[in-house]
User: What shape does this take?
Amino acid sequence: MQSSLYVALSAQVAMEKRLATIANNVANMNTGGFRADEVKFEEVLSLAAKESVSFASSGQNYVSRRTGPVTKTDNPLDVAIQGEGWFAFSGPNGPVYTRDGRFKVNENGDLLTVDGYPVLDAGGAPIALDPAEGPPTISRDGTITQGNNQVGVIGLFNLRADSKLSRFGNSGVMSSVPGEVVQDFTSAGVQQGFSEGSNVNPVLELTKMIAVQRSFESAATTIQESESTLMDAIRTLGPSS
Assistant: This one.
């Protein structure tokens, strides 16, 4: 069995997935609140041969939780998270979490995400503002005030480290474990007039892409050498005419 041939093929499959992930990250480097994808690879051990052979798995994607850069916009409906935490909005199948705080208000006063989903408070209820009262004031704990009246509180949630995150749209994630409401705003909170960008590091992603391309070429060379060795063995050991 040409173990090196199959090991190199498994490496190419893994690197092809890695390259697709990098390309998607680069494509979303300017998407507000986007969380980059990372790939975790594991060793697959085969005992089919006389000696154990290690193969690369195809890889498993996971969502990076690194924070992105925060930009001042002075828009009263732009809100950035300071520290850990996520906003929540109402998705088709339950709450969806995001770091994208570029909100808007429709003609009915509903506070919506940039894609038009209702923003939720800490109790999971949608938030409504009074369109006639003008721009709101939003405090560190998410309290929304218009004039002298408190009209709602933007919910801030923590997602457990062991929860599995799956993508929803460009900047939303769904969690396998419901988010926990943030109650201590000493180290976490929100900041009005700012927005958080993508956490993709373009220089790092470009460096990764170059490394993956070189590794892919190296694996291709290994495959060619394995095939050449096999053909030489067949010509040498095969029956002579």
Residues 202-237 form the longest helix (36 residues). The CA atoms of residues 32 and 197 lie 4 Å apart. Residues 43-49 have pLDDT under 50 and may be disordered. Residues 70-196 form one domain.
